[in-house]
Amino acid sequence: MNVKDQIKEYIASQPDPKRSDMQSLHLLTLQVMPACKLWFLDGKNSENKIVSNPNIGYGSHTIKYADGKTQEFYQIGLSANKTGISVYILGIKDKKYLAEAYGKKIGKASVTGYCIRFKSLKDINVDILEAAIRYGVGVRNE
Predict the structure, then answer these.
(1) Are 90 and 136 within 8 A, CB to CB?
(2) Residue pLDDT, tens place only, 70-88
(3) Residue 64 confidence (pLDDT)
(4) Is there a contact between 85 and 22 (Cβ–Cβ < 8 Å)?
(5) Are strands 70-73 and 109-111 parallel, antiparallel or unpaired?
(6) pLDDT at 131 exceeding the cut of 70
(7) How far apart are CA 133 and CA 87, in angstroms?
(8) Where are the alpha helices (DSSP H) in the chain?
(9) Nearest-CA neighbor of 87 among 130, 47, 125, 37?
């Protein structure tokens, strides 16, 4: 199964209203990053054990580890969790920036160094979320 089909199946597997929220976020992210590389991580490790929630990734950047190794990974991530949805904005060096710039304006969401977590799209200002995503993409494309 190709990545687009895996993403479609993952979104379709979510209960409503999370399914429609995930679909809206998927389309929004594709509008922000129309020609990006798509990723789908099923949340399983090499032994086929579940180690995280499945997630959809958009774009590509290189992660540099402390030991000097590098790894290609997505820029923006989207994942359903038990209580709602998480949007990951990876590669921002200042871990306080997201919370300081968007935390008070976004609505009912938890904003950490690289993650914006909320129960439902109706609880947040989607324009502010889009601005945060655009910021994250711009930081890595400079």
Answers:
(1) yes
(2) 999 999 999 999 999 999 9
(3) 84
(4) yes
(5) unpaired
(6) yes
(7) 9
(8) 3-12, 18-32, 97-102, 126-140
(9) 130
